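Worked example

This section walks through a single chain of length 223. The input is the sequence exactly as stored; nothing has been trimmed or padded.
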Amino acid sequence: MSDEAPSGRSSRWLVVVVALVLIAALAFAIGRFSTFGASASAAAPGTSSPEAGFSRDMQVHHAQAIEMAMEIYRKTDDPELRVLAYDIATGQAGQRGEMYDWLVQWGLPQSGGQTMAWMSASEAGHDHAGTADQPLTDDEVREAMGMASAAEMNELASATGQEADCLFLELMIRHHQGAIPMAEALLELGTDPRALEVAQAIKGGQTAEIDAMESIAARLGCD
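Given that input, the structure is written out below as tokens.
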């Protein structure tokens, strides 16, 4: 391997980071301009609305997916997996930026309320949301959302080769499986047209990505 290989790889990595920032900024701008045609009399979602809960919780969920996707993009040698990781990272960065802007436009804080509590009235959230008297613990929330633990994130960071590829696929499939009930809950409970559109895109897109990841895992011979 030549001495220039690491610097070339670093340059490509920098391009990816810049692209993610630009995509998030573009989504932020699109979100702002998309509201100009809305009726001034339309009531914005409140802080306890399904839309607000979805926006807050999904931003946290997307943040971990982006971190995992960028980690495997940086070190995988599998071309198909690298493309998929790039698509996950850029797509979810854009959605996360837009959801952040929704809360800004609605005049709501970026955090607040019990995680996933907004889902309790939905069929999709029946087994995922706690109650006011019996809220979910942090571990229960993480499990319900399909998110990786700190130990699993550290394991992914230190893994290499096929071990890293297979671990990423395992964690991201589970992560996507946790996002789909959240999207389904908003589709059942929400009323904001753009939020419903994004929830539908998340449900459809992540279902397709699960299929793709299961196919890659089979090809790689992952357990």
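What to look for: The chain is about 70% helix and 0% strand.
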